[in-house]
Specification:
GO terms for molecular function: oxidoreductase activity. It contains 15 helices and 20 strands. By secondary structure, the chain is α/β, with parallel strands linked by helices. The chain folds into two domains: about 15-395, TIM Barrel (Alpha-Beta Barrel), CATH 3.20.20; about 405-475, Immunoglobulin-like (Sandwich). α1 (about 100-105) crosses α2, α3 crosses α7 and α11 (about 315-335) crosses α12 (about 340-350).
Length: about 475
């Protein structure tokens, strides 16, 4: 069922300048920040467009203190350490690709100097190799600051097992730690608070059985005490952070629910500096978002692209709206902007870290720190448009209003055959148009149609649609 866009929802991005530092403030993303009005109050009761009741929180605000170094944005954590807002996720990349992609990511044309991985991915040594190669290629006089986020898997929860996991991660990263040209900043997180049998790809008992003896010997089975195993893990991360033995810039959690984070108030010496979550949680768990803002827990988002615009058919009208924003900014920058860049920049401009994953070198450049930081601040209307479109992707409930370019072909003197041109040069026949006829279709900016002389296909003309979303283009066809 299509749903209307919530025109009453406010989306604002306020950048306050305090001593050269940006503070991202103001209302956030979507209706998650709009307080539910009580019955009888002016405006009545506001319902989430997606009908997701969990999205209706109080007027939370999200944002970290954002500072800029060499033109690139960093978030300032609660401990006053900094972390880049743009990273590169390598968790599930093919191992043979990782060193080369990491090396490329940290070069000056991209400057994506945060790499996100996990102990369970078994690739931390390859990340270190890529960092070493990348810094060597930079050939700098001084040290190059590079950040690595890695995580402790749920099979390694409990003090002893977490200690083992961290020690193995440190060993894998040792070559980068020992490199006198690298200032390596480490961020350790608990990947999950526990194993969940309700999640289809998790098999708690089997995974425990298949662990090697040296892991089992390090500590008890965390599935036997799921409510406390992660607490012991957190105690170890606190000890690690307080020891000053390694350059631990932060400790945090990933995929934690608000209930678990709130429990930490009862025992933790250090509150998490970072929470890494799926983009879904960011938009639909208003109370979690509000809690993070209140306690200065910085938010990192994964799945921002795969969960949304990587499947345009899921919400085609929403995709068109994102394309429209991309087209508007592209005209301003005089360079092409992708829908993915729009989503990532939208998150980043709200003080949220992004860690897109790719195996494509072109995408690595497009979604790099340099590229995303060059995108100007979105207007309030654009922020609103993006927010509604992302919500439509996540809910699978497409926008009601579509947006496109209308094209009318006026055939002047000869019959023609009209074709839709694919991105790879393929042709899809639309139809035979007689002289004097008109035909109207819809498309997107810069798309190409082709008309052939119906009597002689050696004669044809390409028609590139140089129009903006919402325009109506008229083309007179004369062959």
């Amino acid at each position: 069922m299509n749903r209307p866009r919530g025109a009453s929802l406010s989306f604002m991005l306020a950048l306050l300048f305090i001593d050269g530092v940006h503070v991202v403030n103001g209302s956030f993303f979507s209706r998650i920040l709009q307080p539910t009005k009580k019955e009888g109050e002016e405006g009545g009761k506001t319902e989430a467009p997606s009908k997701a009741t969990s999205s209706m929180g109080s007027e939370a605000q999200v944002g970290s203190i954002i500072s800029f170094s060499d033109g690139l944005p960093f978030a300032t954590l609660a401990n006053n350490n900094k972390i880049p807002l743009v990273g590169y996720g390598v968790g599930n990349l093919q191992h043979e690709m990782i060193p080369g992609m990491v090396m490329a990511a940290i070069q000056d044309d991209k400057r994506t100097r945060l790499i996100d991985t996990a102990h369970a991915s078994n690739n931390e040594d390859l990340v270190a190799e890529g960092i070493n190669r990348g810094v060597a290629k930079l050939n700098r006089e001084g040290k190059v600051e590079v950040h690595v986020v890695t995580k402790v898997w749920y099979t390694h929860l409990g003090y002893g097992r977490t200690k083992l996991s961290v020690e193995e991660s440190l060993k894998s990263l040792q070559t980068a730690l020992d490199n006198d040209k690298i200032d390596l900043k480490l961020h350790f997180q608990l990947h999950w608070p526990r194993c969940f049998d309700s999640i289809p790809w998790m098999n708690c008992q089997r995974e425990e059985r298949e662990l090697s003896d040296h892991v089992k010997d390090a500590g008890p089975d965390p599935t036997k005490d799921p409510d406390n195993a992660w607490k012991e893990s957190w105690k170890y991360l606190e000890d690690l952070y307080l020891s000053d033995k390694y350059p631990i810039a932060s400790i945090g959690v990933s995929n934690f629910h608000l209930h678990d984070i709130e429990i930490m108030e009862n025992f933790a010496r250090i509150h998490p500096h970072i929470l890494q979550v799926n983009v879904w949680s960011l938009l639909y768990d208003a109370l979690l978002v509000e809690y993070c803002h209140k306690h200065r827990i910085h938010i990192q988002v994964y799945n921002a692209i795969h969960g949304t615009i990587s499947q345009p058919e899921r919400a085609p009208k929403a995709f068109h709206h994102i394309q429209k924003v991309a087209s508007e900014i592209s005209s301003e920058l005089d360079q092409d902007l992708t829908a993915a860049q729009v989503i990532l920049a939208w998150l980043m401009q709200h003080g949220v870290s992004v860690i897109p994953r790719t195996t494509n070198s072109v995408r690595l450049t497009e979604n790099s720190a340099v590229a995303l930081s060059s995108i100007p601040a979105f207007s309030d209307h654009q922020v609103e448009t993006i927010a509604h479109a992302v919500e439509a992707y996540l809910s699978g409930d497409d926008l009601e209003e579509d947006i496109h370019v209308a094209v009318t072909f006026h055939v002047v003197s000869k019959d023609v055959v009209l074709y839709w041109m694919g991105r790879e040069g393929s042709e899809v026949r639309i139809g035979h148009l007689k002289a004097g006829e008109t035909f109207t279709d819809t498309t997107y900016p810069n798309h190409t149609f082709r008309t052939y002389d119906a009597a002689n296909k050696d004669y044809w003309i390409d028609h590139e649609i140089s129009a903006k979303f919402g325009d109506h283009k008229h083309i007179h066809v004369e062959l």
